[in-house]
Specification:
Layout (H helix, E strand, L loop, with lengths): L8 H13 L3 E4 L5 E4 L8 H7 L18 H27 L2 H26 L2
Antiparallel strand pairs: 1-2
Helix pairs in contact: 2-3
Amino acid sequence: MAKAMQTNPVVIRRILAGLRDAGFVRSEKGHGGGWTIARPLAEITLRDVYEALGGPTLLAMSNRTEAPGCLVEQAVNAVMNDAFAAAEALLLERFAEVTLAALSADFHERLSSQTSTRETDEHDAYF
């Protein structure tokens, strides 16, 4: 997984540990072991996952802090605080509406469509 996500394996282990602590996955040791989903996908939302991972920062943008005494910076930051809070609240609301089952269904539909397209393309290549 780490290689596919182009990250350090420690990052993946920490993510899985957070998901395990929340009861979403479990691990089995030994031959044939590994990580498996511990609850039905329909019972887990993106918000659940977000919270299990410690509520990481959602927005890359944030207020400026180069000149804390600057009145312009203070005014802009005051307005932006409200905008950032509203955007984050909206994202979290949407996350609560999306289950892993819905994501899985979407993935499988896309995979099936891609596979059908490839088969058609490969078939057409012979004629």
